[in-house]
């Protein structure tokens, strides 16, 4: 059975904005118990590198008051067979307990899943890769029965919580995991308006107006969102370099930072004009 499938971007995928698409998915899944339809537990957000998938998702969590449980692709492999699959089940149950004990919405988020499960060139699939794929497929099919090795109890029902995964290329992932009916997929490719809004939010602490953000985006067109984040960091790097020169160079940096008084404030850097 082939492990790759094409993932075309349909027009319906682009009609909805990022926040409305993810927010709708989380909201509908949260009230799934009173709906007479089956809602996918797995939701995949994929697109080019540095396009703000994780950043946007975290903003949505803040806006909706969601307490997420976060995993990275680095936790999908281990020197012990079965450990990553067990970790996913434990994190899923943790998210479920947030709903039950804290009365907050929650979800399990796995960043860059294709980095951990994707097949690239001549790479080999490990036992843990297979177990992780099987675990996610099982959670999608049976989201209310999640075992972590404890004794079976009929009353042990896990709250159904969303699993949101991000990635750059889902075609590298085992096809049955991402098939229609098991995972809801959303392709994210921001328009110029999307980029302006996100960069404006990114620069909000710098008191930069939206018109100025438009000028920045038009000055550096066709760039991924991470470029504008790096641009912001680079401007502060120059200010910090100047401060280091003012205190006598890098030779005095350690004494200046470690020898400062407890209540002494570090310099405040203003955004560039």
From TrEMBL:
The chain crosses the membrane at residues 22-46. Pfam families: AAA, RuBisCO_activase_AAA_helical. Gene3D superfamilies: 1.10.8.1070, P-loop containing nucleotide triphosphate hydrolases. Keywords: ATP-binding, Chloroplast, Membrane, Nucleotide-binding, Plastid, Transmembrane, Transmembrane helix. Residues 45-189 form the ATPase AAA-type core domain. The keyword Manganese does not apply. GO terms for cellular component: chloroplast stroma. Residues 192-272 form the Ribulose bisphosphate carboxylase/oxygenase activase AAA helical domain. It is found in: Plastid, Chloroplast stroma. One of its GO terms (molecular function) is ribulose-1,5-bisphosphate carboxylase/oxygenase activator activity. PANTHER family: PTHR32429, RIBULOSE BISPHOSPHATE CARBOXYLASE_OXYGENASE ACTIVASE, CHLOROPLASTIC (PTHR32429:SF11). Activation of RuBisCO (ribulose-1,5-bisphosphate carboxylase/oxygenase; EC 4.1.1.39) involves the ATP-dependent carboxylation of the epsilon-amino group of lysine leading to a carbamate structure. Belongs to the RuBisCO activase family. This is Ribulose bisphosphate carboxylase/oxygenase activase, chloroplastic.
